[in-house]
Amino acid sequence: MKFRTFASPLDKKSMENHSIIRGRLAKLRFAMQAKGISACIIPSSDAHQSEYTAPHWKTRTYFSGFTGSAGTLVVTWQEAFLWTDSRYFLQAEEELKDTSILLQKAGLPEIPSIENWICTNLPGKSVGIDGSVFSIREVKSMQDIFRNKNISLVTDFDPLLQIWTDRPSIPSNQVFLHPEEFSGESAGVKIDKIRKSVAGEGCNSMLLCSLDEIAWTFNLRGSDVQCNPVAIAYALITPQESVIFIQQEKVSAEIREELFKNKIMIADYDRLPVYLSAQKGLTIRIDSGKTNQFIFDAIGRLSENKQLSYILKEGPSPVALLKTLKNETEIAGFRNAMKKDGLVMVRLLMWIEQSLASGRAFTEISVEDKLKELRSEQALYFGESFDAIVGYQEHGAIIHYHASEASNQQIRAEGMLLIDTGGQYFDGTTDITRTIATGEVTDRMKQDFTLVLKGHIGIATARFPKGTRGSQLDILARRFLWNEGLSYLHGTGHGIGHFLNVHEGPQNIRLEENPVCIEPGMVTSNEPGVYRAGMYGIRIENLVLAREEKETEFGSFYCFETLTLCPIDTKLILPEMLTQEEKEWLNSYHQTVYDRLSPHLSENEQTWLKNKTYEI
Amino acid sequence: MKFRTFASPLDKKSMENHSIIRGRLAKLRFAMQAKGISACIIPSSDAHQSEYTAPHWKTRTYFSGFTGSAGTLVVTWQEAFLWTDSRYFLQAEEELKDTSILLQKAGLPEIPSIENWICTNLPGKSVGIDGSVFSIREVKSMQDIFRNKNISLVTDFDPLLQIWTDRPSIPSNQVFLHPEEFSGESAGVKIDKIRKSVAGEGCNSMLLCSLDEIAWTFNLRGSDVQCNPVAIAYALITPQESVIFIQQEKVSAEIREELFKNKIMIADYDRLPVYLSAQKGLTIRIDSGKTNQFIFDAIGRLSENKQLSYILKEGPSPVALLKTLKNETEIAGFRNAMKKDGLVMVRLLMWIEQSLASGRAFTEISVEDKLKELRSEQALYFGESFDAIVGYQEHGAIIHYHASEASNQQIRAEGMLLIDTGGQYFDGTTDITRTIATGEVTDRMKQDFTLVLKGHIGIATARFPKGTRGSQLDILARRFLWNEGLSYLHGTGHGIGHFLNVHEGPQNIRLEENPVCIEPGMVTSNEPGVYRAGMYGIRIENLVLAREEKETEFGSFYCFETLTLCPIDTKLILPEMLTQEEKEWLNSYHQTVYDRLSPHLSENEQTWLKNKTYEI
Fold first, then answer.
1. B552 at the A interface (CB within 8 A)?
2. Cα separation values, B514 from A106, A234, B491, Å
3. How far is B487 from chain A (nearest CA, A)?
4. Cβ of A538: how many Cβ atoms within 10 Å?
5. pTM
6. Prediction ipTM score
7. Please, what's the b/e burial string for A469-496 (b: 16 or more CB within 10 A of its CB; e: otherwise)?
8. Which residues of chain B make contact with A474, given a CB cutoff of 8 A?
9. I need a labelling partner for A159 at 20 to 30 A (CA). Which of A68, A454, B272, B450 fits?
10. Contact check, Cβ <8 Å, B472/A476
11. What is the CB neighbour count within 10 angstroms for residue B310?
């Protein structure tokens, strides 16, 4: 998500921008006071609980200037605070400077949750939110907490109409089909699986609100959200048909015809409540974590006004799990996409090395541009899966750094460069991080890098029984750092979609508990790191596929297969810190990288790769 | 908990006992049918949610013959099932043989929870429980689940009066004080801490129902429950005074006088509701996980019948955390108790070795008796902290095995012997497991032992930041076994009381999530194992104290200090499977064992210990 022209870090015009922010906050406070609202909570989400959102929903950025993907703004009559997580601490400090908004470092033990902060500071008052950007579950949880302090929650407080006058409209890009040749399964089969799954819970229908769940179910893709190939829509699966609620002009006649073969209809984006009012006998599964309060209220009002013609039953969407268990076609596609991305990375790393050797000036942004150029040469390339993080030296310590014209650093022949990037291909989505030495590096850099690598290998080589959760595996990535009093506060791994969102649930590998178990077919990132603020950052990221390993008298055991193909910089490794097994993993990984990539490389490139994948 | 005369494993009289069980079930079904109850749930708990209970509450054993400490019986008109966890699978299979009761192996993925089993099999029916042996939380959770299937829960179904005519009464053993010299803190100071803690939640009073929380708070001990030095009681702390509800005859005049110094009164066990009805202005914290439904209903009925004179506020008891964070006096006491227990173990292991060498016949039960004899020689000894598990060869695979006259094995000069035992001393509670070779052992035994040892060292040497939960550390104990397709299904570690229950919360180290973090001052067991059914079992258990290790720019880091002092059998170790660091830990541990114990040993014993603690 780039906003180079607005509130980018270290922007020369920042003072000017900050006075704009103060003006917007003043208008917001005026609207709050008019409605008797003492605090307004503005999250980063859209109406579909998306992590990345279309510009239409960038309300939190509009009011704060903070451009990170995660963060929640709380505005009271006197104060304003932004809660964000450790990935964004440094960026938020930069971007909030002089805005009057104070940073709350979420995740640190001494920082209260937003709800607790409000309970402590505003007992007995009213809190306003725009219900369309909060899930039912979030609203219920807030209400439960606020009730103890007599705080009332107003869920239809949306003052944007008067304030954000030039708000972008909801995007209306054309949708397109994701052919079965890549998805491996027709929409019809997927819909049947969903029907069968919700039938087990006594439901005959399913309401889908998550954009990636809709995209997966109907083998439909869009480009409404940068880097995420999804379209803004709701969908309802009933016993007779499926209906996608979407701006009509986005769907061509050909696609409608194709969808119709699986009894999939198209209706206007805002017609879900009206459609429902005409139905009878539906028992609809809704996921309260994925359905927004506004649509829930709209459906609820409808059922209050007339004879109840349908029943809502709360429960987790079965699509998240169906979607994350990749089928053989998707896995083959992932392998192919990894090969292409590996070629891109090899060429990029060679180009960087040559640039450094030749003394040709180049910057963080030129690396990013080169990446896109190299990826666009690959077959089935659709776009980037997220805005690349190219952070030289101290910028590498800003976990979700994105270079702006102002911050853009020239890369010199010393220190380390962190590159976190990914591509969207029709046959798979990629996400890789490499940290490389661009010249002289310190021993501490090498030590830190080797500790991170040991953790990376810990996950890559993990073997674990059926029923194991990501939170149990997480320490395998962290323990070497913890032994030295180091840590990183971001997750170790996230699920990844197949030509879909680069972050997807339901599984992950994190410090925090998540009851979802790691199952064969899941693709998850493996990305430990360590960050020395103001100095450098290190992260090593591959994607891993969970697979069955063996059956014993003690049950089924699973393992990971590393999918990503790209050398890890051995110049940054202290081999004496690695065990024999760790060296063997690295050597075998490098052998695989060479074997799979070299047939597609020029002789020159082969030689380079050979040198980078020598046994240590 | 021993029941040698009744339904012990492999008992020759088992067929006879099993017909008794069938008769009792028939009477229970008659009572169920008379009240229209389709299923009756009988847990192993007492009215205080204790893990180990007085004979008065051994209802589940009475109706099933199963003597394990954990297990729940479900009886329907046609069938009966016992749910128990992996520790008891083998024992339950033995004990349930021919009783008509079927085993449900809880924890296996294919086994439904009791609630789900009932939902599937008895929709629309009535389920009966004795509310006094279920917590408020358990009842609420069952009601929530049953509601979806129109199942009603009758919480006052207690047919025992008619059936269990010779039911033992509630024990009436004398209580005694645990002097501040050992507890390190007066009851007055502890009560003030509790008052302060609940005040933070808007309460001025605290209801205590857990026997160990009551014992800790008032520095009072008893002997109502075998191995647990607690007395059956409730207690209420109000702003003015504290009241212990307990059978009056248990408390001597001297103790009453001592308690009165801290404004602690004594009232009859059943007077809590009546006492409350005379109170005004109390806002009482109750822990719904620790308060039984019967007492809650009794208090609730009272508040319905008259002007509400007090308010109940649900929330976790602060005592659990206060109690588990051991003070310096308690820690010093633990160290002293470990030294004594180490001497006991050294003498026991020597005695076993000499018995084997001399060809003197000895059995599992003689080891147990010898243990008690040796412990009773130690200062401040009070009793065993649980019935020792002494399992030779295949008995070692029965995780909570207890030798009966019938099962009692002679120990021969081959294979392995598992000894899990602990003592109650006035200055601390101990819990240790050692598995030793009594003669020739196989390579597989050594491999398994070394894998378990590697896991044990993994926990012993863990370093982790503040905020880490036991479920995150757990894999450090399991990963070596998992790598080889092995596992164990019990927890890796439980908290342990100070001259109190050998199992105490709130922290633990388990597969299952538990939000409680490991904090400095907590004492937890470290006991990985592996069990080959019908062959042998291995477990290595020490107690570890969590301590602060260091502060870095990344925060506070903690580590464990191993408290238990006893050699680990090096004859069972394959040194080539250990890393250099693991060998160093073992050698350093053995050096500590020798250094701390040898001053208290005879020359002969010193020589023996020297031999057992040589560097490998």
1. yes
2. 21, 36, 12
3. 6
4. 24
5. 0.91
6. 0.89
7. bbbbbbbbbbbbbbbbbbbbbbbbbbbb
8. 472
9. A68
10. no
11. 18
